[in-house]
Write a structure and sequence with these properties.
By secondary structure, the chain is mainly α. The protein is 52% helix and 9% strand. Strand 3 and strand 4 form a beta hairpin. Helix 1 crosses helix 6 and helix 5 packs across helix 6. The longest helix has 26 residues. The chain starts with 16 loop residues before the first helix and ends with a helix.
């Protein structure tokens, strides 16, 4: 698969927004770092592709970001820091190394999650209470908070044992297949590549 260098064309193989967010910082070649969140607009584009915020909210944030450039840059800087924390937490889960996770990383993770939730409240909607962003508020931090809430949703409402790391690259994904034996982020990309490598290695061994 050709390397997807931009946020517009990267595959969304994580199965949940927070894992696609993590994957935005890595190439499809193992141990290769690539930055797809190059500016605040990229954060909005990824949020829109993953339907984290509605189009009206995305449009309002795009307008706001043009007049609050420094604030947008601060959000982007913190977003990259959060992404690195996500990578360490979810990689520890995916590789069975949770007991080795640095407690400072876990502390930072909890702090970010708490901050995201502090910006939501319950509102009356019909005959029910609904938790949502504070009404009539457009804040450049909302896309990042949405990714943080996605991480909370993954850990609370999904089976953590199905958080996996692609055997061919650094990408993380949630395995929702029926038998839960998925090995690659994408069968047509990493799966085919890995099988080709194994075939080549077997062929080479036969010749020696």
């Amino acid at each position: 698969m050709p390397t997807a260098k931009t946020i517009e064309n990267m595959p969304l193989d994580g199965g949940i927004a927070c894992l696609d967010f993590v994957n935005s910082g890595f190439d499809t070649e193992k141990d290769t770092i690539v930055e797809r969140l190059r500016d605040y607009s990229d954060l909005l584009t990824l949020s829109e592709r993953l339907s984290l915020l509605d189009k009206e909210k995305i449009g309002a944030l795009r307008i706001l970001s043009t007049t609050h450039i420094e604030e947008g840059e601060r959000v982007l800087t913190v977003a990259r820091e959060v992404r690195q924390v996500f990578f360490k937490v979810f990689t520890a889960l995916a590789t069975g190394m949770l007991d080795k996770l640095n407690q400072e990383i876990l502390k930072a993770f909890n702090g970010y999650i708490s901050r995201a939730y502090s910006n939501q409240s319950f509102f009356i909607e019909g005959s029910q209470l609904k938790r949502d962003w504070k009404k009539d508020r457009v804040d450049l931090w909302q896309p990042l908070w949405a990714f943080l809430l996605s991480a909370h949703d993954l850990l609370v409402n999904r089976d953590q044992q199905y958080i996996k790391k692609c055997r061919a690259c650094e990408w993380l994904f949630i395995d929702e297949t029926k038998n839960h034996r998925r090995k690659w982020c994408d069968m047509q990309a990493c799966g085919s590549l890995e099988k080709s490598k194994r075939y080549y290695q077997r062929k080479k061994l036969k010749k020696t």
